[in-house]
Amino acid sequence: MTRLHRADTLLVILGVLLVWQGVFAYAGSTAITAPLATFAYAWGLLAGNFIWPHVGATMLAFAMALAISAVLGVALGVVLGLRRFAGDVAEPLIAAFYTIPKVTLYPVMLLIFGLGLSAKVAFGVIHGTVPVLLFTLTAVKTLPSVYLRTARTMRMPPRDVARHIVLPALVPEIVSGLRVGFALTLLGVIIGEMFASQRGLGFLIINGINSNNVPMTTSVTLIVVVFAVAANGALLALDRQLHHGGRLRT
Amino acid sequence: MPDAGQGAAHATLSGVVRRYPGNPPVHALGPLDLALRRGEFFSVVGPSGCGKSTLLDVLAGLSAPTEGSASFEGAPLRGQVPDGIGVVFQEDASFPWLTVADNVAFGLRRAGADAAEIARRVAYALDFMGLKDFAHAYPAQLSGGMRQRVCIARTLVLRPRLILLDEPFGALDQQTRLLMGDELLRLWRETDATVLLITHALDEAAMLSDRVGVMSARPGRFIDTVETGWPRERDSRIVSEAAFGAITARLWSCLRGESLKALGREAP
Ligand SMILES: Nc1ncnc2c1ncn2[C@@H]1O[C@H](COP(=O)(O)OP(=O)(O)O)[C@@H](O)[C@H]1O
Ligand SMILES: [Mg+2]
Questions:
Q1: What is the pTM of this model?
Q2: Does residue A198 belong to the interface with chain B, where contact is any CB pair within 8 Å?
Q3: What span, in angstroms and rounded, lies between the C-alpha atoms of B246 and A101?
Q4: Which of A217, B85, B153, B163 suits a disulfide with B129, CB 3.0-4.6 Å?
Q5: What phi and psi values does residue B162 have, to the nearest 5 degrees?
């Protein structure tokens, strides 16, 4: 990171804190806690034992949802990308699905999956799959045909073409899809926990609201946001490297 | 009509026509015949869109002719690229996720060559193509001309007996093209391979080739074949010879009318 980037980052953080302080001044302590008080409370939570089982529950559901989103998104993207016609029919439908507020699907999802882990994971998956799918689909459709012709001049069997040409060519786009899908999957899991669980960070947030525990709600939200922003930053850096150098710099 | 002259031809096209299906179908090529002599350097020139890349696809076995047939070393081609043919495409085909060395080693690894043999051949090809200092670079860090050299090296290490090159120097400036031409001649002499080079540069064709096939506007047919009569040991310095000027002039007089047709005008 250059000095300028650091200055920008600092400015953004300062701005966020100012707005936060402003909202606190306007809405008062029945809605939100002030930045400093929240940091202190969050620190207390992280230093104690109470929050960790909930972090663990959220992370387990999140990891499962992200893995399923990745596998499902890549598989569907490759299949639809290779089957031109199916892809042309499916793409606008998927894009439309992407724009529906997923909250409208929650009642149905609850009826299908009930309460607990599977519902949380399902909420994460419906948020996370689509971006991975769309990025993969576009990448397959724009895969340079000269790569495949090169494979034919080397008489490569289809398995080798998939493994040594198609997959590596798709990796940068899959990482882009995962980066967009990452935050959405986390959001899905947290919302799932709010509606359909007795454990996890989403549950702590909604429980805090129900029991008027404003410091708890605000601190847990802060922890989630910091995690999401940090992960997004790391994935963005990876994404940029893959798109510029076409490779992983290690 | 180019023919084998002496001995059996290395690769042939006979009565080849290629139409691309569509509405209306595009008649891209032929009917034409071609017989490449073993070990010769044959260039194809023609106006853009006349079917040169289509001809290469058919000769490589990448696409089947609509009519007629193609053969390589006596065996007919059937929708597959036979062992012994190497192709360098018009588009950049270097793999951006692999280093230059891994790109060059790609075909050898797929063919299951052993590691020491791969290392030896790759080192030689990198050196030969002037890429030694870039072995660990990625294609994104190279110029277009260097990426094309990576593709040439990747084909070269497989030791093809027939090398097909589709406008490999299209993106280069004139000076670099002449120098790359020298490298190509060196490669040709060293490998004893038969070379078919597609180019839009008449001087390049005149300087490099034993024979130059001149194609008509689409659908491309051979309208003339020029024997250059160059000695096997030659390089870009022959551009200063009188014969070079005469050959280039003959190519141009053939092509002028066809190029005008390709632009939709009549030759005066
Ligand atoms: N896959 C294809 N489908 C339909 N038409 C094609 C296809 N490929 C090439 N053509 C057409 O065939 C003609 C010859 O193309 P090409 O062989 O690429 O010419 P050149 O390499 O001489 O420029 C052109 O008019 C081109 O538009
Ligand atoms: Mg072409």
A1: 0.80
A2: no
A3: 73
A4: B153
A5: -130, 120
